[in-house]
Specification:
By secondary structure, the chain is α+β, with helices and mostly antiparallel strands. It contains two helices and four strands; from the N terminus they run ββαββα.
Length: about 90
């Protein structure tokens, strides 16, 4: 079984599940997505606290496909991680 499963992918709505993840990645993706232009709704949910399965929903106004929004968010997360690593490395060298 794949860790990521796309449940719905239309011009305006994306619903996907990610196994073995929790609020950390769900909140990060959801919050970054809701700040993107064209996004009208972005949220995540965990159906049951004992089942580590996260569902993310992104809905747009149609000006941008939600899958493209998700790709942008993932690129933003990678860039934020790189910046954090660089700043941490500079601090450790001091």
């Amino acid at each position: 079984m794949s860790r990521i499963e796309i449940i719905k992918n239309t011009e305006k709505e994306l619903v996907l599940t990610i196994a073995d993840e929790d609020h950390t990645i769900g909140n990060l993706i959801s919050k970054l997505a809701e700040n993107k232009q064209g996004v009208v709704y972005s949220a995540y949910r965990i159906e049951h606290p004992l089942i580590p399965k996260l569902t993310i929903t992104i809905v747009t106004d149609g000006s941008t496909k939600p899958l493209e929004i998700l790709r942008e968010v993932l690129k933003d997360i990678m860039e934020m991680s790189r910046e954090f690593e660089e700043k941490l490395s500079k601090q450790v060298k001091k």
